[in-house]
Amino acid sequence: MTAMREARTITIIGGGTAGWMTAAALGRFLSGPDWTIRLIESDAIGTVGVGEATIPQLHLFNRALGLDENAFVAATQGTFKLGIAFDGWRAPGHSYMHGFGTVGRDLGMLSFYHYWLAARLDGMAADSLDDCLIAAVAGRQGRFARPDPARPAPAGGHNYAFHFDASLYAAFLRSYAEARGINRHEGRITGFERDAETGDIAAAVMEDGRRISGDLFIDCSGFIGLLIEREMQAGYESWQHWLPCDRALAVPSADDNPPLPYTRAMARAAGWQWRIPLQHRTGNGHVFCSALMGEDEAAAILLANLPGRALADPRPLRFTAGRRRSVWVGNVIAIGLSSGFLEPLESTSIHLIQSGIERLLKALPSDRGSDAERAAFNAQAAAEMEQLRDFIILHYWANGRDEPFWQDRREASLPDSLQQRIDLFRASGRLADGQGELFTPLAWQQVMIGQGLLPDAVHPLAASMPKAQRDELIAMVRQVVASQSAAMPLHRAFIDTNCPSTPRERLAS
Ligand SMILES: Cc1cc2nc3c(=O)[nH]c(=O)nc-3n(C[C@H](O)[C@H](O)[C@H](O)COP(=O)(O)OP(=O)(O)OC[C@H]3O[C@@H](n4cnc5c(N)ncnc54)[C@H](O)[C@@H]3O)c2cc1C
User: Fold this and answer.
1) Which GO terms describe its molecular function (predicted)?
2) CATH class of the domain at 8-49+165-240+321-386
3) Ligand 1 pocket: which of 45, 190, 217, 251 to mutate (most atoms <8 Å of CB)?
4) Which atom of ligand 1 is nearest to the CA of 283?
5) Is 83 in the pocket of ligand 1 (CB under 6 A)?
6) What integer is the mean pLDDT of 212-220?
7) Which pLDDT tens digit goes with each residue over 251-308?
8) Torsion sign (Cα): 66, 67, 69, 70
9) Where do the domains of the chain lie?
10) Is the dihedral of CA 2, 4, 5, 11 positive or negative?
């Protein structure tokens, strides 16, 4: 039997971050006469346009496309991100970091944090792991350098991601995709034609009567889910009972100069506020729960807490935390906001686009795909979203604030999967290391400890280490972290040397 090869057409619906990331990746990996890739977008409808903070996994995507990192940062007014500072989540005035990279130095069979926990339970005065990781210390000092892979942890043990202007990123990827033969079609889709036999989508019908066909359709149409929901009725599983924030107001402000090399997530009375520094401006937003706070009050809080003058009126966005019940139905695969939404507390949405694309390429069907392929694909997508959901819920649950919203979050029931993780940690200090999970114990330990969750008992090997030896280990780590951080250039200087946006469009505050 010979493998059948016939030319196939993939039609991407939507030209936001999801659409152009998908187009760039397909242009890179599905080139040649066997494939026709098209993208339809409507300038009149526009994009969500927020989504400016990322996580380190984006390196893999950029590398797969062969992008030059400095060129990419310069083209998107980008800055570097060492982690996220969570201000006021444990209590007003408190702050801890979820930094990228290693924490301390592992010893023997145990991760460093076990020794830290043993010392903490013995009375060590510290309320987060911050001074044991380079990403946190360098971040607080406003310093940045790329890690040196030759250095063992903790020296060199940091990682980083990016902040960027989402619309410039989409434009950057559009040039990349169009240079690789992706055809862009501008206009509003008003309907779809279906195959009478299979029920699959045969073509998108445009407002002006054009008909754009495809064998496989990738729904990147945003929250509306034009194909996956409106046409294919995949259904939506709401997680609002766990994540009740359902509104955001986004506003750019003048330069937060010099730009911090980390995102800030600041707890507010009924939600939280983000601050994302770019080269030419700062992205700000207030995520809040509309059942407890009106839009006017939310806007007033946001505008009173900007690092510089507002450059526009706050833009409202509505959402429901949750996931599409199936992200692959018939010949439609949803990627991006059309597949579900988690608030940007851990900057996971762009990563979900990336992993959706990776899943698509790995599972690319030879024709319309079988039910078995769809089921496996949908199960993987669901598991991934659920892991991220649990991590985000943890931030809300482990809070120490007094407002009614935060009291409710503390008392809310948790998904079983999260409850089990917390129970294990409480009982033993251990963290489940799920295969292939995005957030590893390095992330969980920082958030749990940073928000004041300590175990009742620690690992016996850490507990039995002589106190002097344990103290020496922690002191060594702190000293190396401090000296490595201090040796880094200032973030602004690193950008100016390596990847300034040209022309520099910095706005005076
Ligand atoms: C408040 C908020 C903050 C966020 N912050 C972050 C963050 O910090 N980090 C992060 O990773 N992610 C973040 N995100 C998520 C991020 O914005 C999205 O994941 C990303 O922008 C992808 O969006 P999208 O491409 O799926 O949809 P969209 O940007 O909405 O694009 C949809 C596309 O579909 C097209 N379209 C729709 N209907 C039609 C039609 N009828 N005809 C033709 N074209 C059509 C539109 O024109 C557009 O091109 C945030 C999201 C929100 C809401």
Assistant:
1) monooxygenase activity; nucleotide binding
2) alpha beta
3) 45
4) 8
5) no
6) 97
7) 999 976 799 999 999 999 999 999 999 999 999 999 999 999 999 999 999 999 999 9
8) positive
9) 8-49+165-240+321-386, 103-162+415-491, 247-318
10) negative
